[in-house]
Amino acid sequence: MAGSSFGNIFKITTWGESHGKGIGVVVDGCPAGLPLCEEDIQAFLNRRKPGQSKFTTPRQEGDQVEILSGVFEGKTTGTPISMVVFNQDQKSRDYSEIASYYRPGHADYTFDAKYGFQDYRGGGRSSGRETIGRVAGGAIAVKLLNSMGIDFLTYSKSIGPVTCSPDKFNADFILQNPLYMPDEEAAERAQDYLEECLATKNSSGGVVECIVTGLPVGLGDPVFEKLNANLAKAIFSIGAVKGFEIGDGFDVATATGLSNNDPFCITADGSISKETNHSGGTLGGMSDGSPLILRAAFKPTPSIAALQKTVNKSNEEIDISIKGRHDPIIVPRAVVVIETMTAVTILDALLMNMGARLDKIQEFYK
Amino acid sequence: MAGSSFGNIFKITTWGESHGKGIGVVVDGCPAGLPLCEEDIQAFLNRRKPGQSKFTTPRQEGDQVEILSGVFEGKTTGTPISMVVFNQDQKSRDYSEIASYYRPGHADYTFDAKYGFQDYRGGGRSSGRETIGRVAGGAIAVKLLNSMGIDFLTYSKSIGPVTCSPDKFNADFILQNPLYMPDEEAAERAQDYLEECLATKNSSGGVVECIVTGLPVGLGDPVFEKLNANLAKAIFSIGAVKGFEIGDGFDVATATGLSNNDPFCITADGSISKETNHSGGTLGGMSDGSPLILRAAFKPTPSIAALQKTVNKSNEEIDISIKGRHDPIIVPRAVVVIETMTAVTILDALLMNMGARLDKIQEFYK
Amino acid sequence: MAGSSFGNIFKITTWGESHGKGIGVVVDGCPAGLPLCEEDIQAFLNRRKPGQSKFTTPRQEGDQVEILSGVFEGKTTGTPISMVVFNQDQKSRDYSEIASYYRPGHADYTFDAKYGFQDYRGGGRSSGRETIGRVAGGAIAVKLLNSMGIDFLTYSKSIGPVTCSPDKFNADFILQNPLYMPDEEAAERAQDYLEECLATKNSSGGVVECIVTGLPVGLGDPVFEKLNANLAKAIFSIGAVKGFEIGDGFDVATATGLSNNDPFCITADGSISKETNHSGGTLGGMSDGSPLILRAAFKPTPSIAALQKTVNKSNEEIDISIKGRHDPIIVPRAVVVIETMTAVTILDALLMNMGARLDKIQEFYK
Amino acid sequence: MAGSSFGNIFKITTWGESHGKGIGVVVDGCPAGLPLCEEDIQAFLNRRKPGQSKFTTPRQEGDQVEILSGVFEGKTTGTPISMVVFNQDQKSRDYSEIASYYRPGHADYTFDAKYGFQDYRGGGRSSGRETIGRVAGGAIAVKLLNSMGIDFLTYSKSIGPVTCSPDKFNADFILQNPLYMPDEEAAERAQDYLEECLATKNSSGGVVECIVTGLPVGLGDPVFEKLNANLAKAIFSIGAVKGFEIGDGFDVATATGLSNNDPFCITADGSISKETNHSGGTLGGMSDGSPLILRAAFKPTPSIAALQKTVNKSNEEIDISIKGRHDPIIVPRAVVVIETMTAVTILDALLMNMGARLDKIQEFYK
């Protein structure tokens, strides 16, 4: 049902199927006055574009974005920004086989059960291409937040068994390798591992990490609209995510209060800060001024060429081997999706926060 | 700002502070015709009540709930159900010390930054007592779902370093021990560990797991309103949660497609099922008919008696030792909070799902 | 279903039935720092209290409000403000007759059809007492807006055939007569008319007008969230309202562009204003700096002692005469309901508007 | 700000400016299984298309709609339906004059004040062309409701001083005259009146009426989400609407309880009905089974060629005469906008209503 919108004041509404005419997004509630052009958006879309390495689907898509509304004389006007990417490489191949059974790990079965039938071409609305709308909409949020000194660093933290080492962290390297890892050595090992997955017609999972710096203190609300709660929803709404953490995440379960509490301290400039950041940048659901740190676990691509067991729509058990164009890993292309969904959530919280204090409201309207 | 409501059709709005007059909830959108009385709610509140063992705060609260509206002749009427628990044990002690500094791991600092000042008595709105409203509201959701064959099993999966073993899982034991663990041996070791924490004026984290059975297939929507996304928000909106997983959770990051995919199969009665349940009961964001399995990681109670460093409101670094009534662990009392928030999320998805198919709508209104 | 909340950032959630334990409201999203006490609220509730003249129901209710949360040391904290008015005069009389049939002009029939049964005691949730929650919540909005120079003037514009004359408008007189009319002569004639209604066991309709001054320009959004659209919903959500107008209202249908357009002009202080105010204070759905003027038409009280035809729940046509305590007119007590619902709508628009421009956002967070 | 979405479960999100690349809508939450093609939508758009008579702007627009997503093999899939109408006749004329001043009765001034600047080409987002998205989205709602036996009859009730007579009501005539009036004689007089308006470079207001039959009893919720309240918002969100009524509307103000109450009666088939329909089809905010009757008052087109006074952006008072392509009356083209916005509101209420009763929910999921 209605589930294609995200956000309260800054809101994105996405639409489109993998093999339909196109994919798009309407961004509503973008503040007026932000310089914006198609190149701003395209730079983000290019980070998730297929066909960039042997570890992504060879599907050829230019993924060129068009802005249809909401921008006038190079600036956002405050009215909805409609963007579209027309699909190009929708091979008109034979879907009769794939339409006949339920692929394990996919939404075919649940879609059928919910809606009575499904668009079986390439996963329809549950395809990874659905994230194009998120990235296009979120690119605007990133640009706007950047203009306020809020910055994002997002990368593949681990791929299969290969984890980046904090000691070898090199932010500049992230955009220089197809896996978007910040550790050159890990990136090499991860590539070897993925070669092995490809060779065995298998696929790999992994973890994406996102760090946000420059946040004002106090974003998010104390109870259900905690910043972390909305981030959890934003990230868990991305297909294939099965786990989400902030700060020390699941490690806190084995920590003690003494080791996990972050002592407050006074910095050189006299302001309040935290000595450590186990909390990952939120306290009581509100941003605490430290870097926001979050992680998401992605499951391995469910579409694999190896033989699998499943059932067909005649209720028979069968063996299948999924052909077609599939990434052996979702993680590298998901990096920019995590970044943009994080940005959408933060921008919305930043706008919602403006009405928190009467004195500031009175000053605003003076 | 406005962040005290959760849900779309079935919606809870909570209010109240730790040391104010009381804590309450308004449940809006509860279907008419559910038999309901205060005892139904009380049974759930008793599971989170303080003072039940040495591992919970000795604060004495009856936590007696009153239903003020929405029930007539023993049944819900479809109108809002207002419930209140009046606070009893608000010690009128001296708060001047606690009001003077920012407690590490607490929301004092972020509250001050956001709102200009805070209710420093016992954590105010960020106190664990805030969850009373959630539990009272969610108890109704559990009861309603139970009437439809949907059942909940929720327990402490781990406490500090002690994890329950699947081999020793005993559902009946859960309500028979103050830690709500399903493994008797683990429960003993966990108690030893907590004794140690108390002795060292320290505290412990842990993990809660919730299993939901009997769900129809298709609850949740494909994109932003995925069932798992709303569960992530629901659970992450609970104070002290730092991680959330569904099914295999973070383990999927090191899995392969072949090991992680759940093959579909035909059951003895001819219906479609999954051979395994790595997915934890959702596919493409919709319930898949298998048990829903989720886990949340809780950080250690930040209020500890051990000496800690922090800053006061005069911007000076100081050492503190927090006195007062605090649980050495949040997890056991959080078990019922996880269960009820899960129920609220599922019931809302179940109501939202009724408009998914035209044929079913036409039949409904025939 | 869920329909007891109004507003986005500043949000009121009301609950309670006419003959239940009480009536209340949770105000979420109130900015922190507003001085607030129960007397502030009580002053508004007293304007809608029954038993104040022979033209209101003789039901005796103190309608004393209690604030249960959200205020600390005399100021709002930014957390939800829960308020309750406990019912006192719920006569435990025999409801068997009224429970047996559907009263014309009431919600008995539709309630039964929707929910399967209803709380028939005094109208239950559809009673006029439901507005207590609106008035208590809206009183906070009025107080906050007053602190920003935004003022409200609300009164009975007409009662039955008696309309106040603009020439005899006396704002001071409004609170000095039980009908809340601004025209002394009209008030006298209206009282005569109502005496006549009482004598004939009949009732009267009327019109309420509200004027808001001091609004900043630009509140409301261009399309669905127009300020006038939200005001229309707010006012039409009040029971018994059958018509709503802004500015010249229905008269614009017979006007021409030349007569209806308000020319812009430059005022003595050099700012832009309008020479006339046919628009009633909005242009394109946004406040235009002129006074906001709205009107609502209320139907006559449906509960009348005169003989009426209806059907009972055994599907038989019967004649009834409704006994009990009823106002011969709703309008005077509805004046404060119109005012407070208008205030809630405006305050929400004022908070939503803060994120409209990037330059102002950047300045806010500097 | 975010204000371009309407509805809860069935939700439309519109975008686009008068002189931008196009106008569109995303329909989210449309139930799966509705047969749908572009011709279904086009039939509705043609009713609001310009250039059809001398009383509408001569702007030439084919207003051809394209469906970009959400329909597969001729049926809706339950996923968002994105539709677009590309603008064709955006004359690249000189806007420097119109950009220099504030047009009376338009949103130029309020837009500038709110957003800091505006898209001055043809009214931008506040143009009547914005309603294309509403009509395209609402056409789907009408089609779906028709499939359930719910029908719409919408027409111009009055134009300027000319009102249709109930005695001469001819439903078939509505689509046979460019003014969409149901009374042939009135239509002739209205045309004469509009000729006169054109000759004097002036414009006219009018009233649209919409009648909906076949509604089930109980749609809408008792308090803030009354069916009439949401209809009021839906209709008042249409530009140029200044008044809204249900049933007897403003006439109730001078009625008495005895004359205004609709007696319930038993119909020939034994079901409950009302003898009269002063209420216009709602009681207590819920549909009562009688025809829903609503009316909206539209102001005269503010763009007139006659000389008007206003101010320019240099804060000088000037005289202007607006050139360009403008309708001398909005009403006839607004008829289909009223119908489709009414349909969107009703369909959403119909979907929200499905969760009202536990017994029906249990049966639905059996």
Adjacency order of strands in the biggest sheet of chain A: 1-2-3-7-4
Percent range of helical residues of chain A: 25-40%
Q: SSE order of chain A, as H and E?
A: EEEHEEEEHHEEHEHEHEEEEEEEHH
Tell me about the biggest sheet of chain A?
Answer: 5 strands, antiparallel
Name the CATH superfamily assignment of chain A. Chorismate synthase AroC
Q: Which stretches of chain A are low in confidence, meaning pLDDT under 50 for 5 or more residues running?
A: none
Which CATH class of chain A?
Alpha Beta
Rough outline of chain A = globular
* CATH level-3 fold name of chain A: Chorismate synthase, AroC fold
Tally of helical runs of chain A: 8
> What is the CA-based Rg of chain A, rounded?
22 Å
The end-to-end span of chain A amounts to 43 Å
Biggest interface, CB < 8 A: A-B, 112 and 111 residues
CATH architecture of chain A: 4-Layer Sandwich
Brief write-up:
Four copies of one chain form a homotetramer. Chain A has 366 residues and is of the alpha+beta class.
Written description of the protein model:
Four copies of one chain form a homotetramer. Chain A has one domain: Chorismate synthase, AroC fold. Helices cover 26% and strands 21% of the residues of chain A. Chain A has helices spanning 38-48, 108-115, 131-146, 184-199, 227-236, 257-260, 331-352, 358-364, and strands spanning 5-6, 11-16, 22-28, 65-67, 71-72, 75-76, 81-86, 151-159, 162-163, 206-213, 241-246, 264-266, 272-274, 282-283, 286-287, 292-298, 308-311, 317-320. Chain A has a five-stranded antiparallel β-sheet with strand order 1-2-3-7-4, covered by helices on one side. In chain A, strands 9-8-10-16-11 form a five-stranded antiparallel β-sheet. A two-stranded antiparallel sheet of chain A has the order 5-6. In chain A, helix 1 (38-48) packs across helix 3 and helix 5 runs antiparallel to helix 7 (331-352). The mean pLDDT of chain A is 94. Chains in contact: A-B, A-C, A-D, B-C, B-D, C-D. Strand 11 of chain C pairs antiparallel with strand 11 of chain D, so a sheet runs across the interface.
